[in-house]
Amino acid sequence: MSDLAIKIENVKKKYRLGTIGGATLRGEIQSWLAKVRGKEDPNTLIGTKGQSGDEFWALKGIDLEIEKGDRIGIIGRNGAGKSTLLKILSRVTAPTDGKVYINGKITSMLEVGTGFHGELTGRENIYLNGAILGMNRKKIDEKIDEIIEFSECGEFIDTPVKRYSSGMYVKLAFSVAAHLDSEIMIMDEVLAVGDVNFQRKALDKMSEVAKSQGKTILYVSHNMSTVRRLCNKCVVLDEGVIKYQGNVEDAIQEYLKVPDTMQIHNTFENREITDEQFNKKIRLLSLDLLDRDTNQIEAGEKIRFNLRFHCIKAVSRTYIRCIVSKMDDSRVGTAFSGEITGCAENIVKSVDCELDVSTLVEGRYGLVIILFDGDGSGYQEKYDMINNALVFEIVNTIDRPVYGEWDHTNWGYSKYPELIIEDKT
Amino acid sequence: MENWTTIISAKSKWYDFNLRELVQYRDLIFMFVKRSFTSQYKQTILGPLWFILNPLLTSFISTIVFGGIAGIESEGVPYFLFYLCGYTLWNYFATCVNQTSVTFTANAGILGKVYFPRLVMPISTVIYSAINMLVIFVMTIITMIVCAARGIEIHPNISIVMIPVLILQTAALSLGVGIIVSSLTTKYRDLAVLVTFGVNLWMYATPIVYPLSQVSGKLRTCVLLNPMTAIITNFRYALLGIGSFETFWWGISLVITIIILVAGVLLFNKVEKTFMDTV
Q: What does the alpha-carbon distance between residue A90 and residue A329 come to, in Å, rounded to a whole number?
């Protein structure tokens, strides 16, 4: 068995909803008296009976093993239990049931700058914050120069932090956290501090620290690109249970998955159009993938599909804009059509389209279809738009390239045709 | 089986108290003391002088009210010195209890974000207040010298060596009481109000504004059962040579102090695990 850093066994956490107890001693006595006399508790909400229904299980039994040196991303919707899990791991609160075994010194950064005090200088705050995060004075002495340099606040380090700009404040706070000496680090969205450059620096620093010093990292974020950059494994939480654990791309796909979208026949007939920017002259009806019986497409191939749309009012012409996007809505690329002849009122038009997706690498993609008309000046009249009109997956079952698996984080989502090499030696 | 450094579980045992961890965090205790000091006195005119002003004024007013108007005896020492001496330790006790009793509620922000042994907070409060107390103690000694210079007889005696113990005991007792209350205030906020009020009442059950010799009969036993009584009485005896050194009652007081402190630490230890859910 390899070295485990953290082992989580059937961890559950229960919260009581609504008011917790009577909040005051008087309220508690009131409730108790009412119960003794058989009357309704004056402190419960009207319409709720007793306390048993007011429970909420934030975590419903988590089992997880984390190996040393793993960088685990924890993703999930709001309320999935991510923060609760981190709070339990960082010992801010105890689980209702279950056990967590930890091997190594653990520090949590659920927030940067915990305990910072405005009256203290930057330097004093480094010591204070470091001590709160579990470093002793000697360790901080060793690292203080490094911390100050990283924070980019060197000039102001002996000024009280209440005079700092908010950017300097978080930079300094993050710098302390980034230089901790613990083996396991728990982070909750804390990388999103400072300006863009600093965020990048922070992320690089964390990656570097994790890789070179073999630290174990648990990172919660809604920002998929930071998860991609930092983590090597991912856990998807959903309503208090682990829905998926494994590699980052699959986990992100699992998290962002819109159920049942991998269809060959996609119809959009029974939908409400609420978006005001579309003028309802044309409505998209359906998109059918042609020549295939699966949405899995071998890398390097093109796709063909049939598009049907209903011209409610007569239009002279239309164009199609076809956006390939990742499942997290980040755009990969866009193809435009040439002019399509318009049609008379109340006619259903059907067109076949061919889209060259041969440069796309393995992964799941969605097609956003937009019908519009434009005059070249930038003004566009939008007729209709469907998000993820088609969801397809690029697979690679034939080609076994020398580089092994595609590295999405560093290489992106497009694989251009082979580089032409002329050997001149 | 692997060697786990930490195990987090739902249920904890009452005696599950990690002293070693607390020692590891000693730097943090002093950082908090420093933080309290800096934050309280930066950008003030008198700075730490406020330390002195407060007990001096209180003693002065007591001299007028209890000595002058009510005419309570002070066993032959000047009223002012008598009260100042009593307030030295009492003030320390009261400040510690009042401040540690809000440990959880006042620091929910930090405590909800990061783990460190929670006892660090009340302990640093007690140490911080000790600075305050020591300044008053010095004031008391200066007042003694001034009195002696004016020809008033004051008899400090050998039991003065017990003063550090008395101070430590006051710290321990106030810490115990404070953390018991703070453990309870996580659920019942109104206890915090009760504490301020209760500490005020407690003062009158302690011979601060009157000498122990004025109390007799059953009331005397009651007053002596109050652990602060022996502390204050012995402290005054050591410094001013008035009253008596209550050895037996001091023993009782020490036992009570230890019981309260241990009970407090255990209760605190129990509550700290989940207080974030109720605070």
A: 33
pTM of the predicted model as reported, rounded to 2 decimal places: 0.73
Q: What is the ipTM of this complex?
A: 0.80
* Whole-number Å distance between alpha carbons of A405 and A208: 22
- Is residue A29 domain-resident? no
Count of domains observed in chain A: 2
**Min Cα separation B122/chain A (Å):** 15
Strand pairing class (A184-188; A380-395)? unpaired
Nearest to A99 among B9, B110, B113 (CB): B9
In this model, does residue A51 exceed pLDDT 50? no
The answer to whether the beta carbons of residues A321 and A417 sit under 8 Å apart is no
Among the partner-chain residues A21, A88, A131, the one whose CB lies closest to the CB of B187 is A21
pLDDT at A21 exceeding the cut of 70: no
How do residues A303-355 score in pLDDT, each as one tens digit? 999 999 988 888 888 899 999 988 777 889 999 998 888 888 888 889 999 99
Q: Do A109 and A213 belong together in one domain? A: yes
**Of the candidates B48, B234, B237, B56, which has an alpha carbon nearest to the alpha carbon of residue B140?**
B56
Residue B9 inside a domain? The answer is no
Q: Do A115 and B42 touch (CB under 8 A)?
A: no
In a shared domain, residues A119 and A216: yes
Q: Is residue B49 part of a domain?
A: yes
The parent domain of residue A346 ranges over 265-395
Same domain, A229 and A366: no
17-76 in chain A: CB under 8 A from chain B? 20-21, 23-26, 28
Q: Which of A26, A117, A163 to mutate to test the interface with B (most CBs of B within 10 A)?
A: A117
Any chain B CB within 8 A of the CB of A290? Answer: no
Number of domains forming the structure of chain B: 1
